[in-house]
């Protein structure tokens, strides 16, 4: 591996750490400049937990005990713990699907009954609905069927994290710690009952990344390139689930081109990743060309819509119901051009509205991008508790679980940012460097959402990445401390 490539890795880690810490800083600053009870209640426990974790981890005996204890766990045990937690929540929650989740449930019923697999409004991807319809065929038409499948995918994501951490750290104790963190992660469990894109997309991206890491060291070379192909296949499947999948494809390909040992391996590896993606996405290309006469891997025609939401000032780059109604009314009133689909017209009108907002208030939009949107994308936990518990018999737990979710999340991202900015993350760089691909995907997503619509739940697929960063850093600290008795790698 060339030193220049190592420098790219150093810079990527340090810059990502700065982005994370900056997002945390502006959230804390905004909370204390304009304090509200809701923000204080969700932020202060997180700050206290940050302090508490620092105090405990500074103690040598605690570090030794933590890794010694985790070294006793194996991935099968952790998988069943994760699966049981999610299955129990599925059967206990008794949740009614709301908002986007309700739409995906309706689409899945349509697909199950033999309808078009493509959303006729081209507003939502079809991947989740196809999966849920398949679960109906296998286990009966009941939301529980889809939720059990999501619970299984969540548990499998935990296993994938286990092996990723082992490959990039060489420590079974760290693998167990990281996977147990994700197994017990509040929002990761809660999402098991929500019939949306989040759990499925997270699973596909994490498994694709695992295959990418395996491909780097797999032998013989035929197996290596097959792993690259499979990695591309899983990114292709994720493209059926969310429109941001090409950002991960780009990150994977750039990593392959930069970091494989030989130029011939790099080019062939990148081609195999791309080929795997194309094989799975080809039906979308064909459909888009037949319907819209365009060549695109996207199942959605919402670029203008997302841009309009991303620059709206009233909701700080988030969803704005008033703007949505305005565009809908204009579509109904406007004379439609011949052979122009509603989705195309909707995106066009939304783009015009977005440009209007930017022209009228360019400084305010720029200020919002710099001071509000980073915090919303990174520094705030998902509002998944509200979606899951509002209609549940356990709605009385909403505030309590919300506080826990915010506290552990702000602690996770703060220490992830700190570790990325320090030397502790670079120990055994030959192992940890594959994380560059995931970091690039994170940065590409971050900057995309600084322009497009942003919601806290849009970072859900990066929670495994933050956990991996934190645990690898903690392992390196424990291993390199001269007074520690060992790193419990085995």
Automatic annotation (TrEMBL):
Q: Which example biological process does GO assign this protein?
A: lipopolysaccharide biosynthetic process
UniProt key word Zinc-finger: no
Q: Where does the protein end up?
A: Cell membrane
Where in this chain does the record put each ArnT-like N-terminal domain? 139-289
Q: Which InterPro entries match?
A: ArnT-like_N, LipidA_mod_glycosyltrf_83
Where do transmembrane segments lie in this chain?
9-34, 40-57, 69-92, 122-139, 148-169, 189-214, 243-260, 267-286, 397-421, 433-452, 458-479
MF-aspect GO terms: mannosyltransferase activity; pentosyltransferase activity
> Which Pfam families does the UniProt entry name for this protein?
PMT
- Sorted alphabetically, which keywords does the UniProt record give? Cell membrane, Glycosyltransferase, Membrane, Transferase, Transmembrane, Transmembrane helix
Does the record's keyword annotation contain Thylakoid? no
Question: How does this protein lie in the membrane?
Answer: Multi-pass membrane protein
Q: Return the GO cellular component terms, semicolon-separated.
A: plasma membrane
Q: What is this protein called?
A: Dolichyl-phosphate-mannose-protein mannosyltransferase
